[in-house]
Amino acid sequence: MDVNARMVTEDGGHRVVVAIEGRAVELPPIEHLLFYAGVGTLVAAGVIEWPVGLALGVGHVLLDLTRRPGLQALGEALEEA
After folding, report:
1. Which residues of 24-50 are buried (b: 16+ CB within 10 A; e: fewer)?
2. Distance (Å, rounded) from C-alpha 37 to C-alpha 60?
3. What is the pTM of this model?
C-alpha cells in the first residue's frame, strides 16, 4: 500500500493532502479541524449543548463553502471575538 501525505498552503489555510494508492484526498484546513475539535470538546465537557455545537460546525462549513469575502470577514470577526 502506497501512502503519501503532503502539506499544501493555499486557499486560506494549511491543508494536508493524503494520497493512498494514487487517489488524493484533501482534508479541510488544519485551522478548521482544530475549531471542530474545540467545539467537540466543549460539547463533550457539557459547556455547550450539542445542538449549539452542531449549529457552530454547520455554520462554519457553510461559510467555508461559500467563500464570499463579506461572509468570511464576518466569520473571522466572530472567531476573534
Report:
1. eeeeebeebeebeeebeebbeeeeeee
2. 13
3. 0.65
